[in-house]
Design brief:
Blueprint lengths: L16 H18 L13 E6 L4 H13 L3 E6 L11 H9 L5 E6 L4 H8 L3 E7 L5 H15 L6 E5 L6 H12 L3 E5 L15 E3 L2 H7 L2 E4 L4 H4 L7 H8 L3 H5 L6 E3 L12 H4 L6 H27 L1
Parallel strand pairs: 1-2, 1-3, 3-4, 5-6, 5-8, 6-7, 8-9
Helix pairs in contact: 1-12, 2-12, 5-6, 5-12
Length: about 300
């Protein structure tokens, strides 16, 4: 298979296992490119990409922007926080105005779940979802799965636990879909108040005890505790969260095996994981960041290939 089965990358839910493997194989080639002295290829020289961020996200935006520049695309950045969206312009109007400038592809981060799907039905451009509310964050899941594959080989049969605020996490949902499509077993672990009620219906194991979860898994993906959740008291205090769900060196050393530690970032050091864990050989957090650029290059390249085919 040499092309994606979908025109837009709106969520892992819509991708086939073959799509995911194609993205990973393509990322292998781009990873080799970004480790060369000259890190640019002319692959998207004729493609214009608009980055539409209706929500702040420094890291995802930088990663996409770097991926676009490495592919030689023309890039427009649009930060909706400072734009006419505040004046009441609708999402479709905003995007159509940008498309009138002959944009081929839109990378969009939006606070509303389903914004990418909605937009894909109303505008004539390809959409890559860079996160929609607490719904999906497909490129993060693709890079997480890619990083595990790089460290442990084939994902089939691997055991991955996602720890923390599953309820509000787009990363968790996309990761669950992606890992399951690649044959991994998935468990979620966190305070009962931060686990969605029907999470088990997605075919994941649920564990409230962190130690038991770590004894079960090969990989632990530690989600960021969002400070804005602290006010609404989903858990009594940060200190208590750390005691029950924080990973430190002592806990890792007490397990009878070495597990891989991941984190989608940005890390609250001393909350989800301590510094000596974040900076240890077991953590692949910086590999995730590097792989993020290669994965986003692969996604943009494969979506652009569909644009070109339709233009012919």
């Amino acid at each position: 298979m040499s092309e994606l089965s979908v025109d837009n990358v709106l969520g892992i839910k819509y991708l086939t296992p073959e799509d995911i493997q194609l993205i990973h194989r393509t990322a292998d080639q781009f990873k080799e490119v970004i480790n060369r002295p000259i890190k640019k290829v002319p692959s998207l020289r004729d493609i214009t990409i608009a980055n539409l961020f209706f929500e702040n996200s420094t890291r995802t935006k930088l990663s996409f922007e770097l991926a676009e520049k490495r592919l030689s695309a023309d890039v427009i950045n649009f930060s909706a926080a400072q734009s006419s969206v505040k004046k009441g312009e609708t999402l479709v109007d905003t995007v159509n105005n940008i498309l009138a400038m002959k944009v081929d592809l839109v990378v969009m981060r939006h606070p509303n779940p389903g914004a990418g799907v909605f937009l894909s039905k109303h505008v004539n451009a390809r959409i890559v979802n860079a996160g929609d509310g607490a719904h999906e964050h497909p490129t993060q899941a693709l890079l997480d799965a890619y990083s595990i594959r790089e460290k442990l080989g084939d994902l089939s049969g691997k055991k991955v636990v996602i720890v923390g605020d599953i309820l509000h996490s787009r990363v968790a949902l996309s990761n669950i879909y992606c890992l399951q499509k690649l044959g991994a077993e998935v468990m979620v672990c966190g305070p009962a108040t931060l686990l969605p009620k029907h999470i088990a219906s997605l075919g994941v194991k649920v564990e409230l005890n962190l130690r038991k979860a770590l004894e079960w898994c090969d990989v632990a993906n530690m989600l960021r505790v969002q400070n804005e959740r602290m006010d609404i008291s989903y858990f009594p205090s940060v200190r208590e969260y750390v005691q029950q769900y924080g990973v430190n060196r002592e806990l890792l050393d007490s397990l009878d095996k070495e597990i891989v530690i991941m984190h989608p970032g940005p890390i609250n050091r001393g909350v989800e994981i301590t510094s000596d864990v974040a900076d240890s050989d077991q953590a692949i957090i910086l590999n995730q960041v590097e792989n993020g650029v290669a994965i986003r290059m692969a996604v943009l390249y494969l979506v652009a290939a569909k644009i070109r085919r339709n233009d012919q």
